């Protein structure tokens, strides 16, 4: 597997949405496209939208079915939200903590996800779930697959904000070797096709200070859950 990382700017297809001007077309490889800096022009607006979501559904540390408390704090917006507890993993239309539906998906989120999926060759991606992950130094995500969604033909779009992280992109077997992929503020990654069920994780976040987020990383993951 080769991973080619987008280092230039994006095509000028979406200037109404505030994307950078035309430069180099995005590079897609089987399974992964990294659109470097795609979200940067909208970073403050995205973080304001995250604040709106967390006002209704605060970040919390979920418990795994095995009884471990996750180091990454999570919340959701959209029609469905990903949750974990002693009973298992699932998508739930309600926040178990409040009993209320998850906050609506901000239009800015939906548009960015659609635009990124489109640039990576996945037309008409309409996410119905957005998992928001909050990393503080030391927080990590162990190797796992995302397989609670109903439609594996849809890609997953991820938006990285704040401190840089090292994403580990593995293979279709847990024991396959992993490739480290650095993800920095503003990067939007699209995962799909044959690698949609690849094992992946995030290394423990290193200490640091980001101008907008301080000692934090926020990752938005857009999914089609049903
Ligand atoms: C690659 N989140 O929430 S980005 C997750 O940075 C998750 O917070 C990471 O893994 C983060 O489940 C990684 C998103 C991601 C999601 C699904 C994938 C990458 C993927 C599925 C296959 C390959
Ligand atoms: Fe994942």
TrEMBL record:
Pfam families referenced in this protein's UniProt entry, alphabetically: 2OG-FeII_Oxy_2
Record-listed E.C. numbers: 1.14.11.33
InterPro entries per the UniProt record, alphabetical: Alkb, AlkB-like, AlkB-like_sf, Oxoglu/Fe-dep_dioxygenase_dom
Swiss-Prot/TrEMBL cofactor(s): Fe(2+)
Keywords noted in UniProt: Dioxygenase, Iron, Metal-binding, Oxidoreductase
Fe2OG dioxygenase domain sequence ranges: 126-226
EC category name: oxidoreductase
Tagged with keyword Hydrolase: no
Keyword Iron: yes
Molecular function terms, GO-annotated: broad specificity oxidative DNA demethylase activity
Protein name: DNA oxidative demethylase AlkB
Organism annotation: Tistrella arctica
